[in-house]
Design brief:
By secondary structure, the chain is α+β, with helices and mostly antiparallel strands. It has 4 helices and 7 strands. The longest helix is centred in the first third of the chain and has 9 residues.
Amino acid sequence: MADPARLDVWLFNVRFYKSRSLAAAAVQGGLVHLNGARVKPAHAVKPGDAIAFRRGNLDFDCEVLSLPPRRGPAPQAQACYRESAASTA
């Protein structure tokens, strides 16, 4: 099993935020929740965790499937999470 990753790094690596500092600011500001709880940017993320945050006017919920080692191309990043059915609707 892969070592857990920081939440802000995972959000940056899967291309939800354009920089790690923006991801950290969103987590610190309470906009991102991990498994229903408000956490700090350095909190560990592992496969199976649920992440919820707001993208513009829409709520976005997803399940972590894998931990990418770096920020890669968009198709590779999209394979690292599964958006919930409620979120896609």
